[in-house]
Amino acid sequence: MSRPADPLAAPSQAAPAARLEAPKDALARPLNSxxxxxxxxxxxxxxxxxxxxxxxxxxxxxxxxVDETGRLVEAFTGLGVDKVRLTGGEPLMRREVEQVVxxxxxxxxxxxxxxxxxxxxxxxxxxxxxxxxxxxxTVSLDTLRADRFRQLTRRDGLHHVLDGxxxxxxxxxxxxxxxxxxxxxxNDDELVGLIEFGKQAGAEVRFIEYMDVGxxxxxxxxxxxxxxxxLAALEEHFGPIRELSENGSAPANHYCLPDGTVFGIIASTTxxxxxxxxRSRLTADGVWFLCLYAAEGLDLRTPLRDGASxxxxxxxxxxxxIGRTDRGAEERARLNxxxxxxxxxxxxxxxxxxxxHTRGG
Length: 361
Ligand code: SF4
Fold this sequence. Notes:
This protein is an alpha/beta fold. It has twelve helices and twelve strands. It has helices spanning about 65-75, 95-105, 120-130, 145-155, 160-170, 190-200, 225-240, 300-305, 310-320, 330-335, 345-350, 355-360, and strands spanning about 35, 85, 110-115, 135-140, 175-180, 205-210, 240-245, 255, 260-265, 280, 285-290, 300. Strands 7-8-9-6-5-4-3-2-1-10-11-12 form a twelve-stranded mixed beta sheet. Helix 3 packs parallel to helix 5. The longest helix has 13 residues, at about 160-170. The radius of gyration is 20 Å and the shape is globular. The structure holds iron/sulfur cluster.
């Protein structure tokens, strides 16, 4: 998987690399939250992410091994990153997922180590992930109906996801979150049912507006259910909903039902929140994207494999971050009626890094 380290690289007993000043980008946004994709493959084919069957996968030899992933994350944590979310494709399809968690759980400075999964394999891994040091998990679940699950993902397996959710709460993987992409005419009639399910499962449900990124080649604004429309539908059933005040850069707005149930809405399509965005993404082959919509990323795998020290990697990362001006969702929103899918299939085939399942959502 990886070339032997450069003998010229700093010997391991060298003093830990200097912690640089936590950089702020050109809009004064800190570098706090890193999403790390462990693999670009997935065991589902959700049609808003992987509408096709066959894909241009990342070359296996380019995939970072456990230690390389650890070394890169260490470089980021020395610059202020304290939230690390493991993603995919489907991260539980990566055989060494527990080893990666174990490696990252030892890195000082990470106060929130989480993982987002489609839940199909969660029942099998939940306890081992908790033992390895994972703090919490988020499960992507867009419907509670087996027929719709099959229609959306072209696979069966809803029962496995529900088993996974139960196993995760039994394994003590923190307060579970459930992410639901809401699509008009598909699952917008399940908001109440999903909230009720979340209550029973002890999980916080977050509804996500349908986004035009990656493989969302069928995206159109008509299929987007806006935050205010979701709230109106939920108020009709549950009664007055109170908005909870938020501080920090988390993407979700939180709300409280009359019975105290808390849920979230991520309104990245109609009310983008780029102004406070402290998130960036590392693909499984070590390419760093400063924004979900960014056309290009920075290759960190090559300098890493060429023996760059942690200090040198930090300088490269900090030097890049300070020039960041990305506000992708805001720019997309300004397109208004001209807005369509970001990419078509032929565009995605040209560069697998454009795919959502490569960038890790
Ligand atoms: S679109 Fe880009 S800048 Fe805006 S919130 Fe998403 S990742 Fe951040």
